[in-house]
């Protein structure tokens, strides 16, 4: 037992030493790859089998594997090709953070050689992260007395990338008060400071709004922004200012106590306690106690009895002081006026309370009598009204005045007048009296209805329900009563058919006569009707009625109610779409054919995208998302089937999206004999499989049928080519005769064509194949060019091409050739299988 135990320990130690030596040898010849981050799953990293000199057979047998711990989830080894590929997306920032170098190490174990190879994969950074700020908004506060040159440190932006893709600098929006100073720290990091260039003034601007932008050095450049709001704090740098340096007021001697003589007003541009003002009397005389000043409002009030005979003039000095002690002064001059004992009296007779608006100028409204019991100048009275009214006072005799109209009246502008008659005597000071007259202006229907807009434009989505509201119109009439009651109606155009014909507007649109609401009488179809124009009449209820017309445009909005229509390849009566040819020698990206589709909708509802739903050999073909072009995704392998069936889905961008699909058959072959030989081998294999075991003889009937089918097709094909050649010679002879007798030239035929449906023009590529006979050969071949698709060209731009076999403007169609060449054996093979 002890001997066996020692033997096992010795074997383990020997194996460990061997592995260590293998690891050391692999480290000395380490393989390095470099890839960018964020590559798609399945992306190529390196040809590991070639770089390590590994045998693909041993690789397929599973003798090579990745043994690195924790890293196998990111990479995978293709046992067929020996390529090292990405198995899942790699994010460098998550893997290495901001480390300048980022790499991943793998160990490749080759069991046949009992050897371990080291593989180092460097992950390169891409500019996939934009600089960003943690704060959504930066609030800074600065006093308006802050000295220029003051600095405010701003928060830093973060960028997860490294090197040139990381944060490179800052800049700030243009501002007259601030500039940006970007500093670089000892660690290379950049930070920004806001520098005050011009003194702040809160009274001019209470806040400054700036935009700070951080940018990196990637291509394209990425950036991030943050808003900066600088709040300017107030300082007591403004003294109160009176609205005027001297206030003047007059007061009658018989005014009661508390009468407001004047009001002083001061303002302070500061805010808060710096703008709180208080008023006081600074300098006064012995008689200044007759007046008092309200410290809060600045009103000058009568506190005692005024006597014109004792003093007719007062001068006061008023002071305004803010909460921080700054003050200013102003003077108040008060003149005391002598009173007139009796005021004039006004009486009105023969008053009309209403007047039609179409009354002519000079119409008498009222008779005014003015009296004053005083005598002399105090008894002489002048009577007047406000100048801007369409009335005037005309003196009849002695103290009687007639109130008459001076201009035409308009009730829509002013429906009621308050006429104030003022009577003022000539005393010193003069006394006056007023009397107001209420006069209503009666309405006349002199204004038509007016719409709120000169024209209206509405919209409604197609497939709307019948009776759906569209919108409403509004018209107003400045008149009153029945003259302002507005009704709405549609103005129907006169049709060529006469009174019995029905207008499309009347069958599509209805309007509510009272509210002006517009309704749809039917469901609209955008593809049939996109715009409807009509007129609406608004009529008032006056006598005679007045009306106004307005134009209305109704736009029908599109819905995604039409599926894409596939124009090419077109489906035949039996449901098939024909056969497309592709040479087996075609390189990746070879254009096989193109699916062309249109959508009767518009806008994004007509944006089409193409995708490959089903394929006989996944990965051999790909379809352009926007172009619909079917191209080879890789080279054609020997194991790929001759006949490839593809299903292409065409989907629009509507909500919800609608789609259509088409099946495309692609035959992979370089020449006609190759097609026949491959079909013969397929038929022979099918016959052998139907016969039973591996030693069974093929059925003689099947072989005979295949030989007959191939011979028949070959004979038909040769006859077809001979007929084409004879037809070509005949046309060439006719063209020579025509050229000798004609002086003009025939214009070329464009090599491409357009098909337009509802404004959408779909481009159809012309796919053609050239057929020719090889000189000196017993066999006929169909030669497939490497590129068989031509883009849209004008007649002048069309490239030169060899003379076709089917006439001046025709080429041998691939579907016709395939149907004549492989249709019979292919169907027979499918039936047998």
Automatic annotation (TrEMBL):
CC annotations in GO: plasma membrane
Subcellular location: Cell membrane
Keyword Membrane: yes
GO biological process, one term: homophilic cell adhesion via plasma membrane adhesion molecules
InterPro entries, alphabetized: Cadherin-like_dom, Cadherin-like_sf, Cadherin_C, Cadherin_CS, Cadherin_N, Protocadherin/Cadherin-CA
Key words, A-Z: Calcium, Cell adhesion, Cell membrane, Glycoprotein, Membrane, Repeat, Signal, Transmembrane, Transmembrane helix
Example GO molecular function: calcium ion binding
Cadherin domain residues: 25-133, 134-242, 243-346, 347-451, 452-566, 583-670
Signal peptide: 1-29
Residue intervals passing through the bilayer: 704-727
Topology relative to the membrane: Single-pass type I membrane protein
Matching PANTHER family: CADHERIN-87A, PROTOCADHERIN GAMMA-A3
Task performed by this protein: Potential calcium-dependent cell-adhesion protein. May be involved in the establishment and maintenance of specific neuronal connections in the brain.
Stated name of the protein: Cadherin domain-containing protein
